[in-house]
């Protein structure tokens, strides 16, 4: 088996105090997750509803599951009862549905707003202006089933570290702006989720990340 424990420790040692590690376990078997779990790690991320459902049923119930993929509105009801955070809220329609399903099961679900800053068209998310507009419209203030805890983004997949830095800093600056304008007294609005296997050191050292989502560096290459 891949040296999950060793890799987990190497990553943990590199993260500054206060940066939350979300171990991205998509496409990896339950025993890999258990290897990290046995080392005390509890926060894992998945990007497909069915895979998450199976792993949630199979694995210890004190695992905190973050949903990080594109979530179809008709799948929200399946994750709402147990998911710890939905990092990938990429539309108002999805936010409304998460709120509705959370209220139905008597929960408040933590969410992040996903930004689309990267140049790839395949990525989902709000443009910075759509994000501003959505918050300005204010409907979210009436939603009792959700807490908007911050922003999430994926930088462009490139070797150009300046471009990665530019994109992450744009997200960090938008975070500051939104914090000041809409959440100045709300402590829970504090997460800046950026940084993956190839760029997490840029994210934490230079771009004010508070949460990194790392899969390959911990679990090895994914087998699709
Ligand atoms: C798969 C995935 C990751 C982890 O990617 P690695 O390169 O394996 O670290 C992080 N964030 C999102 C949104 C993902 O889909």
The percent range for strand residues is: 15-25%
Share of helix among residues?
40-55%
Sequence of secondary-structure elements = HEHEHEHEHEHEHEHEH
Count of strand segments: 8
Number of helices: 9
Mean pLDDT: 97
Low-confidence stretches: none
Major sheet attributes: 8 strands, parallel
Structural class: alpha/beta
Bound molecules: pyridoxal-5'-phosphate
How would you explain this protein's 3D organization?
With 224 residues, this protein is an alpha/beta fold. Helices cover 40% and strands 18% of the residues. The protein has 9 helices and 8 strands. It starts with a helix and ends in a 5-residue tail after the last helix. Pyridoxal-5'-phosphate binds next to strand 8.
Give the helix/strand layout.
Elements: H1 4-14, E1 20-24, H2 30-38, E2 43-46, H3 49-58, E3 64-67, H4 76-79, E4 85-89, H5 92-104, E5 109-115, H6 128-137, E6 146-153, H7 161-182, E7 191-193, H8 200-206, E8 211-214, H9 216-219
Parallel strand pairs: 1-2, 1-8, 2-3, 3-4, 4-5, 5-6, 6-7
Helix pairs in contact: 6-7
The protein binds pyridoxal-5'-phosphate.
Pyridoxal-5'-phosphate (PLP) binds next to strand 8.
């Amino acid at each position: 088996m891949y040296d999950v424990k060793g890799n987990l420790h190497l990553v943990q040692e590199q993260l500054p105090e206060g940066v939350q590690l979300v171990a991205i376990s998509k496409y990896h078997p339950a025993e890999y997750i258990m290897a990290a779990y046995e080392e005390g790690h509890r926060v894992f991320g998945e990007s497909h509803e069915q895979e998450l459902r199976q792993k949630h049923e199979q694995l210890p119930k004190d695992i905190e599951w973050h949903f990080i993929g594109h979530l179809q509105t008709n799948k929200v009801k399946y994750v709402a009862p147990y998911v710890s955070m939905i990092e990938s809220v990429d539309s108002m329609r999805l936010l409304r549905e998460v709120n509705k399903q959370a209220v139905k099961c008597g929960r408040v679900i933590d969410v992040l707003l996903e930004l689309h800053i990267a140049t790839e068209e395949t990525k989902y998310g709000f443009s910075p202006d759509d994000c501003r507009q959505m918050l300005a419209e204010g409907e979210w203030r009436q939603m009792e089933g959700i807490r908007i805890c911050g922003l999430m983004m994926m930088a462009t997949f490139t070797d150009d570290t300046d471009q990665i830095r530019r994109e992450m800093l744009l997200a960090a600056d938008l975070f500051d702006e939104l914090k000041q304008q809409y959440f100045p007294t709300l402590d829970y609005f504090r997460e800046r989720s950026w940084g993956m296997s190839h760029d997490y050191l840029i994210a934490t050292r230079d771009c004010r990340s508070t949460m990194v989502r790392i899969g390959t560096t911990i679990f090895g290459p994914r087998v699709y």
